[in-house]
User: What shape does this take?
Amino acid sequence: MAALASGVAGGPPGGLYRLAGLFGQVVAMVRTSYVEEVSVERLEQGAMAALVAAGDPGGAWVGHGQFPGFLEVRRRAVPAFGVVLGIRSSYPVVLQVVPGSPAERAGLVRGELLESVAGEPLRAQPLWRAEVRLAEAERRGEQVTVQVIDRWLRGKRAVVLAPGAVQVASPAVEERGKVVVVRPTALGEEAAPQLRQALSSLGERVGVVVDLRGVVLGDRQGAVELAAVVAGGEVEVPLARRGGSGGSLRARGPNRSWKVVVCIDGTTARAGEVAAAALKRAGATLVGGPSYGDTGERQAVPVRDGTLWLATTWCLGPDGKGLIGHGLVPDEAVRMREGEDPVLARALEIAGAGTQRQAA
Assistant: This one.
């Protein structure tokens, strides 16, 4: 993608001349063959969004006039109404709902798809459009109605989001016999010290389950530091960039001898995915489904008529492959069932019966 950005900004390299010609032919055929006329602006937005997503699924192309609003939502520590979105099947998908947030009070659930915001259809639209619409409504202090597709794809319903305070809580710690269940909300710089303090008051345990489903918020270093608190010893996650190494993220935690099991699924993304990768590299067992597949750190690249938002570095998984466009694969795949949580049940079983691991 870096080569693409430089090519668009400074003139297309050899292979892109053919691509430009092909694009022109497709535009002409679409405009003359479709039943209803399609505007060039709509075609341009769709083509650019798809082109960027092909190389960087979390990337974006944003027109000049829209970039200030885009950058504002990207800089927020917590998105509008406390709902974190991703993309699935061409729709925005709810990856995380912050506990106690307006999104939770309205009944949004991770894994649900957003069909529209304030009447604006969202299918096949850039993700940032939905994020900007929500941020604008929150800033004006207005309620906004979103049409939601049930996570089991059985039907739709309207959800009304009302502005309200959003406060990120400390990691939740629950004792289940000799196993501790940890549920973080955000993996920022405060999460690891908070968890360390919570774990220090517990007695002897044989295992810990870290539930990273629906965990997205935070930063990569905070994620690795939390992983070190849980797993103990030296924890490291390598970084990559186009053309070579991007260094690594490191942290050290107290000595541990318990079994670590991590719950993941398609709503484990960004900081949550980095934490899962760090714990896996430290010997943890992953249970659930494949993670989302985005650990990229991005920056703006100005081009003609707009800005590209592209990953400059990304984390490598335990297999040495980049966690961007490809998520973590669980060691034990477990499918969710409505009204049950077999993923957590299996994780508790493994953690409770697992052999104690000596800390590195």
About this structure: Residues 14-33 form the longest helix (20 residues). The radius of gyration is 22 Å.
